[in-house]
């Protein structure tokens, strides 16, 4: 074996051993480089509720009208990076004849409450307006139910209340 072949064999051995030992082999770098980074921030409109309100109208004293039932144990949380938003509320179907369900949401620091609002069947009602980029929790919800004597006795039932963040002031 001549000297050049011997030197070439040693060089190949060093390169192979070096690649195996160091894992990545030889890396040649310049003084600087550039890279393109792709990024985005999605639209965020999240709302959640906690609590399980229960409303029961009890018998009044003889000769008195029925008193409203009220529950303020529920709260909501909201996170949005949007602006010009509002919260609406709706029921899937109407309350029984002679029974009204009302709701009042405390507005986050960047909104305005519509006050006490009566639900109408399957129609979204505006509850909070003027919402812009906010993340708050523990915001109060008060439900109030009233019934006329004409409603009669109504067995325990449930209604699904849907709160939605939508565009609009």
Would you write up a description of this structure?
It is a single chain. By secondary structure, the protein is mostly beta strands. The protein has one domain (45-167). Helices cover 12% and strands 38% of the residues. It has 1 helix and 9 strands; from the N terminus they run H-E-E-E-E-E-E-E-E-E. The chain has one helix at residues 3-22; strands at residues 45-50, 69-80, 85-91, 99-105, 112-113, 117-118, 125-131, 134-147, 161-167. The chain has a 5-stranded antiparallel beta sheet, with no helix packed on it. The chain is elongated.
Question: Numbering strands along the chain, what is their spatial order in the largest sheet?
Answer: 1-2-8-4-6
Cα-atom Rg, whole angstroms?
A: 33 Å
Record field, number of beta strands: 9
Tally the helices: 1
Poorly predicted ranges: none
Distance between the terminal alpha carbons, to the nearest Å? 88 Å
Strand content: 35-45%
Mean pLDDT over the residues? 89
Helix content: 10-25%
How are helices and strands ordered from N to C? HEEEEEEEEE
A few lines on this structure:
The chain contains one helix and nine strands.
What topology emerges from the helices and strands here?
Blueprint (H helix, E strand, L loop, with lengths): L2 H20 L22 E6 L18 E12 L4 E7 L7 E7 L6 E2 L3 E2 L6 E7 L2 E14 L13 E7 L2
Antiparallel strand pairs: 1-2, 2-8, 3-7, 3-9, 4-6, 4-8, 5-7
